[in-house]
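queue> pop job 88
queue> type: inverse folding (structure -> sequence)
queue> payload:
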């Protein structure tokens, strides 16, 4: 059975780039953000359950989740957001575990211990994920670097990025390794090689 590694970090930290390095080496990577979108698209029951909590219609004319309507409903309402997350996060974790069971093929990643990765910004602050991973790796960078990256990537203002950073507390749970991404792409790849060579 493949072991589990969580890769986490705030906006602009570079966790997706780290995951792309791992994927290029044959490590199976589960993108939790993409998984949430997919779950909404293929699970009308999930959309219905979330809609019941939010209290407003959440489906568009095509019958799929209207993501803008959901975002508007939970914006600045932390309690409502937590109610929605209490429905969505267990569904994501169940989906991840099923996905992990389905992973097959020859191991060609780092070292001798096969592992899969879940990429998620939230695992350090959500007790649901405690004890799930065999290892947790935090990708980090100075806030000024993260802000600049996110502004370029998303085409948004500095104020918008800083607001998103403020809404994503880093959490204070245990991590097994920290990858500092404050230099070149080549330096980051070398750091990934170093960390994952000795992670297990």
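queue> result:
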């Amino acid at each position: 059975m493949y072991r589990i590694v969580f890769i986490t970090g705030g906006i602009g930290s570079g966790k997706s780039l780290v995951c792309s390095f791992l994927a290029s080496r044959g490590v199976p990577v589960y993108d939790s953000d993409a998984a949430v979108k997919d779950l909404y698209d293929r699970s009308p029951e999930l959309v219905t359950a979330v809609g019941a909590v939010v209290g407003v219609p959440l489906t568009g004319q095509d019958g799929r989740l209207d993501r803008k309507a959901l975002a508007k409903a939970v914006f600045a309402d932390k309690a409502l957001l937590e109610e929605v997350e209490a429905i969505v996060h267990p569904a994501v974790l169940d989906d991840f575990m099923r996905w992990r069971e389905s992973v097959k093929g020859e191991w060609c990643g780092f070292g001798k211990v096969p592992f899969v990765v879940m990429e998620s910004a939230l695992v350090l602050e959500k007790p649901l994920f405690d004890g799930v991973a065999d290892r947790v790796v935090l990708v980090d960078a100075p806030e000024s670097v993260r802000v600049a990256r996110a502004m370029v990537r998303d085409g948004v203002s500095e104020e918008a990025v800083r607001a998103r950073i403020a809404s994503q507390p880093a959490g204070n749970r245990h991590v097994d390794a920290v990858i500092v991404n404050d230099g070149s792409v080549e330096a980051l790849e070398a750091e990934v090689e170093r960390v994952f060579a000795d992670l297990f």
